[in-house]
């Protein structure tokens, strides 16, 4: 278009900037070559009029293109401003950096990173507002093999003994041990020269309150991409949210499960019962014959019905974290408790540690991944716990009540 414009202007210049009377008349009549309206107009004049008409059309088209380009630039600038504004609310700048996120803003890796960063920020700010006794330490780290993360940890607060909310975005090549873990779940992985490129990102949190009447919560939402030797990619989402109370409060259990069910039901009413059972089965301490807590939802290897629909589901689950948990914290953070109740909390934390170190797949995967940050992986462990030899609670006590539920999971929402 830029080359066409000078040529058109030079052609128009031969008319000395004005149409002669016959040309003006023809123009007013709106004549066209196809309608035979050029009759009576000399051939030289016809070519001049045709050139001017073409020039006008080209200039009009150029104006439309320029306006479209301006609108496009404005839309991009507005989108970039929105991206900057969202990043400004995070606990720290995103792991990948703003420039990289902008360059691939529609890619799932960027969208998932924005979601986990937002989730970290929302949860940390909600917890800090409740605690008001300690601030989150924001610890940014890098992984030599590729990527890094942001660990946010609050310790010895008024309400929380330890609350950690971590984000990690890592890439590189899977270790043989990590690849074997995935193959054991039915993954077909095609390595090239023994290497398997991967990208993994997620937000993970464990929150241990001081008061034994405030339950512990854990959540994790993650995204994996694997590149096979033939260049094809496998992807999947995983995650969940689960509650571990020291003492059973049925009203709290119903609230927690109902909030998660509503998040699932936005997408498919079959998801909650499926993922609730999966959660009960996954968080099972085999050598104790009991669940770690009263469950919630858990899923892994989610790669259907589509990448977009799976992402939207994960987003709904992440948004449910604060409303399913923070009201329970506020309700019980000032409850009185006895030394015996505190002792029971310490013993239940011992069970929590046992599950995480012996069975938890995320912990085992992290420990098996080269360059993993051990401090962030073991952030899930409480500051204090207790193992007492042959401890058995009295029958029909509140301690026995919670054990019954841990051994025989209940349906909290019908």
From TrEMBL:
Keywords for the protein's UniProt record, in alphabetical order: Heme biosynthesis, Oxidoreductase, Porphyrin biosynthesis, Signal
Enzyme category, top tier: oxidoreductase
Pathway membership: Porphyrin-containing compound metabolism; protoporphyrin-IX biosynthesis; protoporphyrinogen-IX from coproporphyrinogen-III (O2 route): step 1/1
Gene Ontology terms describing biological process: heme B biosynthetic process; protoporphyrinogen IX biosynthetic process
EC identifiers of the protein: 1.3.3.3
Record-linked InterPro entries: Coprogen_oxidase_aer, Coprogen_oxidase_aer_sf, Coprogen_oxidase_CS
Signal sequence bounds: 1-17
Subunit structure: Homodimer.
Stated name of the protein: Oxygen-dependent coproporphyrinogen-III oxidase, mitochondrial
Natural source organism: Terrapene triunguis (Three-toed box turtle)
Organism lineage string: Eukaryota, Metazoa, Chordata, Craniata, Vertebrata
